[in-house]
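S.,

Sequence below, as promised.
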Amino acid sequence: MMGVLMRERGFTLVELLTVVVILGVLLGIAIPAITKTIQTARSRAYERQVTLLEDAAYEHLQLNPDIESITVSELFDMGKIEMIPLDPRTGEVIEGSIAIGGDGVLFTAAPTEGNKENHLAEVPGGYTGIYTIEDLAAITSGLSGNYILMNDLDFNSDTDYENIANKTTYTTSTGWTPIGSNFSGIFDGNNYTISNLFINNSGRDGCGLFNAATGTIKNVGVLDVNITCNSRTGPIVGTLQTATSLLENSYATGVVSSTFRTGGLVGQGYDTATINNCYSNVTVTCADSAGGISGYNYLSTTSNSFSLGDVNGGVRAGPVAGDVGSFASTFINVYRSSEASVVGQLDAIHATYTTVDPSSFNNNAFVTDSLLWDTSDTWYVDEIEYPALGGTIE
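The prediction came back faster than expected:
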């Protein structure tokens, strides 16, 4: 029998380096995905802990209707729970209070030192929690549903994707595909932010985080957008379509550009839609109908809102709204920064607004007394340049 002789040798340096590079690539893909999976699991474990606390509090609050709420520490002292649970996300004990409201028992986390953000700790009944960029994209498959954001999202962050391969899809080429053609549900940002939304699609009409909405979008900051489309373009939504459309307690920053109907929050507010308690710090560029808040307005209402960004337009350009025309849109208690510029032809019938120094917008008295914003639960203004969502924590 003849054997087969083989030359024995070790790996060459080139082969070893190739293996190291391949392992590095695999780890680069796997680690962010694993990290996000762990973060999501911890968030959902926290929600389960909160549910157990609410269950423990429910019976006591039902039997004692004169008591409005009970804290986690009181539950422990009364023997209703064996121990104060730890927050799986931080390793710290969970502190807060539980009260009975219209939707049943509700836990409110105690603010930590230096934390000015106020978020619901668990997904309310009837809502779907949004934890990742993929969760956000999936709203398109359920446009009549109710959704709540459970953490900040950043399109440029590897850890905000379930599948890191999707990052390239949403941050290069044409970028993000706006949610749906008619979102009719509720999107509650839960005082969180969505950062670095990117769209580069000059052939598309209806651009923003959402394409168009007949439902409610609220309590969200959309930051550092970079959007280029054809028409009906805004950082948050391209079109608010009907009387049931509401954008509330929200803000945006960044740059948007298109040829027709573009605004710093909304491309167009249509058919008695409402924008309330919002602001924009967005540079808007649009040849026809460019506005600091909205590009085109048809019978819509904008109230208690302000605009900070420059507007670069052609015809029908305005510091607050572009094309208002003769359609009896309403502007109530709307403000504009005195330092922002407007290039273009102001519409003959245009939005009414008050020009103030931009420093006013981080003045608590102005925000509460003039804008009529709630700075106890919704907005905070202390020690920051412009208002953010969350409520001032004393």
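The helical segments are 13-63, 72-77, 133-138, 165-171, 364-369.

Coffee later?
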